Amino acid sequence: MLYQKEIYLCLVIESGVQAMNEKILWSLSYGLYAIGVEGESYPSACIANTVFQVTAEPVILAVSIHHDNYTHQQIMKHKRFTISVLSEDTSGAVIGALGFTTGRNTEKLKNIRYKMLQEGLPVLKENICCWMLCKVIQTVETPTHTVFSQRSRREAREAQASR
């Protein structure tokens, strides 16, 4: 492993309200991200709402992907992926195409504008704030998700989309 940094996962055992209500989680801020991977037959991507910065120097991020996702399978296999940070202008059609179908037997990017990096990974071209190319350096398992820690192999790239 490149880095022996610890990632601490926690279980919420008490909250600032009388009875624990899962609706308090709605108060956390989230974004939407397209996580791009090499596919078996064609590139693929899924929607994630959990990407966060772990360290600034070196730049280490973490992303959480459900075990059942094809994207999870491909990240485990290739140990690299891209993150396209979606803007507020991203259409529901793009989010639906990447979020509500599986890439195992569907070409999810077929009707979405994207470019292939020389590393063989896709990044979206429209309505993104930036994109990053990432290499997995550590994983943490939960009952339903894997948290992938990754180092950005390049600085975040400003999006040239729709300009």
Explain how this protein is built.
This protein is mostly beta strands and 163 residues long. Helices cover 10% and strands 36% of the residues. It contains two helices and ten strands; from the N terminus they run E-E-E-E-H-E-H-E-E-E-E-E. Strands 1, 2, 3, 4, 5, 8, 9 and 10 form an eight-stranded antiparallel sheet that branches. The longest helix is centred in the middle third of the chain and has 9 residues, at 70-78. Residues 1-5, 13-18 and 154-163 have low confidence and may be disordered.
Give the averaged pLDDT, no decimals.
Answer: 81
Q: List unreliable stretches of 5+ residues.
A: 1-5, 13-18, 154-163
Major sheet attributes:
8 strands, antiparallel
C-alpha Rg, in Å? 16 Å
Along the chain, the helix and strand elements come as EEEEHEHEEEEE
What is the number of beta strands? 10
- The helix-and-strand class reads mainly beta
What fraction, in percent, of the residue positions are helical? 10-25%
- Residue fraction in strands: 35-45%
Number of helices, counting only DSSP H or I runs of 4 residues or more = 2
Instruction: Determine the N-to-C terminus distance.
Output: 39 Å
Taken from the alpha-carbon principal axes, the silhouette is globular
